[in-house]
Amino acid sequence: MKKILVLFFCLLFQNFLSAQINELGVFLGGSNYIGDVGKTNFVSPNEPAFGILYKWNKSPRHSYRFSYTQSTISGNDLDSEVPGRYLRGYKFKNNIKEFSAGLEFDFFDFNLHNVLRRKITPYVYTGLSYFAYDELFVVNGETKTDYTASAFAIPMTVGIKGNIFTKFIVGFEVGTRYTFTDNLDGSAPKNSNLQTLKFGNLNSKDWYVFTGFTLTYTFTEKPCFCAD
To answer: Strand, helix or coil at 42?
Structure first.
C-alpha cells in the first residue's frame, strides 16, 4: 500500500508541471457497506469518510482522476429488516484505505477557460481501485481480525459539480465500489483454518459506497483544447 501511495504522489507532482488546468482538493462525506451483515440499503452512509483527489483536465469533457480515500465501514444485523439477520445479531467494523485512478466524463461542456461564467454538469467516473482492509472472521458471534489484506475494486460514481466560485469547484457524488472480495464483513475468511466459519451468500462479492461532497481548487496555466 505504501508503494502505491508513493506512485500516486509521483504522478501527481509530475502533472503539476504540465500546462493544463489542474484540480486539487478534498472529499468529505460518509460510507456504507453492502454484503452479508447488517442493512441491505444501497446508499445509507453510517460512517465518516474523507480523502484527497487530483484531476488533470484533458478536455472540457473528460479528466484523468486520482484519489486516496479512507473510512471505516460497519454493519449490524440489529439494524436490518431481514428477520434472519436480525435474529443472528452479528456486527463488524472494517478499515478501508483506497487508492483509485480512472477517467471522469462530463455530460456537458465544462470548459474552465472562462472563469467568469458559471457552469454546472452531471458527471460519471470509473477506473480501478486498490484498497487495504482487515481480514475478519466470526467465532461464537464475535468478530475478530486475522490480518491486513488488499484487493481490487471497480468504482462506479455519478455526481454533479459546478464552478460556484472563481477558482473553486464544488461537487456532490455517490460512488459505489464492486470489490473482488467477499470478506469485508467476516463472512468468508481466506485463512484455510477458518473455512468452517463461513456464512451468508458465498456466490456474491461485497460492495462499499462513498457518498459526499468534493471541493477542488484549479491552478496552473490554462490548457489549449485545440488539435495539435
So the answer is: coil
| Three-class SS state of 77 | helix
Residue type for position 202? L
Rounded to whole angstroms, the Cα distance separating 51 from 71 reads: 9
What are 145's strand-pairing partners?
136
Residues 6+ apart with CB under 8 A from 180: 151, 152, 153, 205
Q: Which cell goes with 82?
A: 431481514
Q: How many CA atoms lie within 13 A of 148 on its CB side?
A: 6
Distance CA 213, CA 216 (A): 10
pLDDT at position 199 is 96
Task: Note the pLDDT tens digit of each residue in 69-79.
Answer: 999 999 999 99
In this predicted structure, what is the pLDDT of residue 50? 98
Report in angstroms the alpha-carbon separations of 53 from 2, 172, 181, 213: 17, 14, 25, 12
Inter-CA distances, 83 with 26, 36, 87, 88, 198, Å: 39, 13, 6, 9, 19
